[in-house]
Amino acid sequence: QVTLVESGGGSVQPGESLTLSCAASPNIFSINIVGWYRQAPGKERELVATVTKAGKTNYADFAKGRFTASRDNANYMIYLQMNNLKPEDTAVYYCHAAGVFRPYWGQGTQVTVSS
Fold it and tell me: Please, are residues 35 and 49 in contact by the beta-carbon 8 Å criterion?
């Protein structure tokens, strides 16, 4: 069983930054692809970014140039650095691991961007 626990969400103003953290169980690092999704009210969950064990990243178009996903294999942590946040970034952000047989999800952390 893989467990993921997010932290670092909160309320910020447009243009500010926020870093999300995801503490993973040690067996998470048998999984190659981990990353972040988000879900805004009334919308479907969408991919934000993924990162492989080797550190290769992939970003949704809205995240390119503003968000940076990373992982610390030694400490079982996954991060999402978000800069220049916009009101449309308001959502619940979920840590994700693409298991071979099933996906794993954290409980989510709320990010609110508002002036």
Answer: yes
What DSSP letter does each residue of 41-103 carry, written as one string? TTS--EEEEEE-TT--EEE-TTTTTTEEEEEETTTTEEEEEE-S--GGG-EEEEEEEE-SSSE
**What tokens appear for 35 in the block?**
């990353």
SS3 27: helix
| CA gap 5, 96 in Å, rounded | 10
Tokens of residue 73, six digits = 């294999």
From the centroid of its chain, how far is CA 31?
16
Q: Print pLDDT tens along the chain (115 aa).
A: 889 999 999 999 999 999 999 999 998 878 999 999 999 999 999 999 999 999 999 999 999 999 999 999 899 999 999 999 999 999 999 999 999 899 999 999 999 999 9
